[in-house]
Amino acid sequence: MTIYDISKKAGVSIATVSRVLNGSSNVKPRTRKKVLDIIEQCGYKPNAFARGLGLNSMKTVGILCADASDLYLAKAIYYIEQNLRESGYNSVLCCTGYEIPSRKKCLNLLLSQHVDSVIMVGSNFIMNNAEDNKYVVEGAASVPIMLLNADFDCPNVYCTLCDDYKATQDATECMLDAGMKNILYLYNSTTYSGLKKLAGFQNALVTHDIPLKKEYQQCFSGSREDIDGVRDFVDTLYKEGLKFDGIITSEDFLAIGAMNFAKANKIDVPNELQIVGYNNSILAHCSEPNISSIDNRLEDMCIQLVKTLIGTLSQNEMPQKTIFSGELIKRGSTNF
Amino acid sequence: MTIYDISKKAGVSIATVSRVLNGSSNVKPRTRKKVLDIIEQCGYKPNAFARGLGLNSMKTVGILCADASDLYLAKAIYYIEQNLRESGYNSVLCCTGYEIPSRKKCLNLLLSQHVDSVIMVGSNFIMNNAEDNKYVVEGAASVPIMLLNADFDCPNVYCTLCDDYKATQDATECMLDAGMKNILYLYNSTTYSGLKKLAGFQNALVTHDIPLKKEYQQCFSGSREDIDGVRDFVDTLYKEGLKFDGIITSEDFLAIGAMNFAKANKIDVPNELQIVGYNNSILAHCSEPNISSIDNRLEDMCIQLVKTLIGTLSQNEMPQKTIFSGELIKRGSTNF
DNA sequence: GATAAAAATGAAAATGCTTACATTTTCTTA
DNA sequence: TAAGAAAATGTAAGCATTTTCATTTTTATC
Question: Is the pTM of this model over 0.85?
Answer without folding.
Answer: yes
